[in-house]
Design a protein that fits this description.
Elements: H1 2-8, H2 14-38, H3 42-68
Length: about 70
Amino acid sequence: MFHRVTRLFTIKTKFEAFVVIYGLGLGAVERGLHYLHDYPGFGGKLLFAVCPIAVFMAGGRILDSVERGYGE
């Protein structure tokens, strides 16, 4: 039964990977906007820039995993 539930959360195709990356990107930009509001100036801009960079790194890892077939 646990195996059937875990299959629901496995990314199997590139389309699913892109949807997940899109969601991560939206969340990162939202967090970055909060940083800009809370920390005006250079610090907020730096924190805003770091948020999407983390999504780029995670997205590359997700796409590599799908291409290699680790999602099976």
